[in-house]
């Protein structure tokens, strides 16, 4: 009995010896069974109390470490955001400098979708601003049209050309490469651009006037990305692309983008 009790007391004292000299002194006075029997409950109480205090201190330190970690993370994040904002501001300033323009969106140095000034090579026209989409398929896209509000489907063509004013902005289209939106623009190939005040379609009436938009209408359409931006109306004048769901229900979003063919 005494051997087991003394071993337990020594272990406990060793755990707290550095910060609790009182326990060491008391344990040193244990010489026979009777005094030990009287001190044991008090010693156990003090040991448990001390262990509880140590546990509380450890918990407190853990909370402080965690709080400091969150604080440091917040400060670092804030600093990084500040640096990013400054870099973007510098980038925009550089792009806005007089004479700063690029041959195409592919030549824009920053891989960031934004407004850039471009001037196509060998072109006599003055530099002009365009929105460059730099994330889709490695970027370099000039956005011709973007209308928002969903499920995204695409139709990709290897060539897209619009003639000049003398041709009535006639549409030329290359091969349909791929896309889950299907080829709904093929019917418009070779057509001039029609508007409500300029009817260039093959219909007996005016498709542009009927659908209240401008497009390369034929008789009248399989697609109209310039249609009214709403879900549905009785005369199908909504923004639509028939191959999206094989109907003319209005779309939530559409984009038309072009880029030069890499050499």
TrEMBL record:
Annotated TM spans: none
Keywords: Disulfide bond, Signal
Matches recorded under PROSITE patterns: FIBRINOGEN_C_1, FIBRINOGEN_C_2
Pfam families documented for this protein: Fibrinogen_C
Segments forming domain Fibrinogen C-terminal: 148-262
Listed SUPFAM superfamilies: Fibrinogen C-terminal domain-like (SSF56496)
Signal peptide positions (record): 1-18
Record-level GO cellular component terms: extracellular space
Protein's recorded name: Fibrinogen C-terminal domain-containing protein
Species for this entry: Anopheles funestus
Lineage: Eukaryota, Metazoa, Ecdysozoa, Arthropoda, Hexapoda
